[in-house]
Hints:
Structural class: alpha/beta
Distance between the termini: 24 Å
Shape: globular
Oligomer: single chain
Low-confidence stretches: none
Amino acid sequence: MKLLAVESSCDETAVAVVEDGRTVLSDVIASQIEMHTIYGGVVPEIASRKHVEVIASLAGQALAQAGVTKAGLDGVAVTCAPGLIGAVLVGVNFAKSVAYALDVPLIPVHHVRGHIAANYIAHPELEPPFVCLCVSGGTTALVDVKTYTDMELLGATRDDAAGECFDKVARVLGIGYPGGGPMDRLAQGGDDKKYELPRAQVHGAELDMSFSGLKTAALNLIHNAEQKGESLDLPSFAASFGRAVSDTLVPRTMLAAERLGYGKVAVAGGVAANSRVRGDLESACARRGEKLFLPPLKLCGDNGAMIGCQGYYEYLAGRRGDASLNGYANMDVGFPSFS
C-alpha cells in the first residue's frame, strides 16, 4: 500500500511516499529555518504562506523521486493536529483535495504519533508495546504505546516544552534558531556542574514535568551577567542547561518504563537529537536492562515519512477522514474519534 504523506504542522513543509508503513520511497522537505531565524522563532502567518507556496511542487517531487504516479497511490495521510493552526490547515486542505481528486482514502494523523512512528522506520524490529519519550519544540510527554494506534498519555510538561526552552535561551544568547543544535554544540567541552539550575517536581504527579522555572532561571542568569558586565562561561552554561533538561526527562522516562515493564524505551521528536539526552538515556537503559530505540538525527525533526508510516497503521485500524476533516491546534495523543 503506497501512501502520499503530508506534514505542515510548523515551519517545515514535508511530503513523502511510504509503502506498507515501513518502506520510505521518498521524503522531500522544504525548511523555513532561514526565513524565521531573523525573528528568533516561527512567525505563524509567514509559515502558513510558505506552506501554500511550496506544498504542491513538493508533492510532485516526492512522486517523481519515488517513481510512483498519482494513479499508483492508495491513500493520502496528513497531519491534522497538533500544530500552528494555519500551517496545519494548509496541509489538511491540500491532502483533502488530492484524496478527493484521486478517489482514495484520506487518513488523519496525529503529529506526535508520527514522531513515535519514526522509530519504526529506523528500527524495523520495533513493535509495541513500549514507552516513548516524545520531546520537541511543542511537546514534552511520556506515552504508553500499547499498540500501533492505542496510546495513552502518562505524563507531560505542565508549561513549556523542553525544545521551546532550548529555543528561547539560544535566542537570548544570540546563537541561532532553532536553539537545540546550537546549544548542543556550544555545550561540548563545557563543565555541566558550573552553573546550578533548578529541576522542578510536580507533587502528586511523578511523571509530569515543568520547564518554566528552568527557563526563567537561565534567562535571569544571562541578563544578570549582562547587567553586571560579567562574562558567562558559555560552554559550561550550555552544558549545565542541557544537564538540567536531561535530569528532568531521563528519570521520569525510566520510572515510566519500570512501572509498565515492557523492557523497551523509545524517544521521538527534535530534542531526541540532543547528545546529552541521548547519552544519559543510553546509560540509564543499560543500567536498568531496558532496550533503547533512538531515531537517527534525520528522523528526529518533522518529516513526511513518519506521517506515512503512522498513517498506514491508522488506515489498518479503520481511521478515515472526509471532506469535513479539520485541523486542530491541540489534541490528546490518544487521538479521539472526530468528524
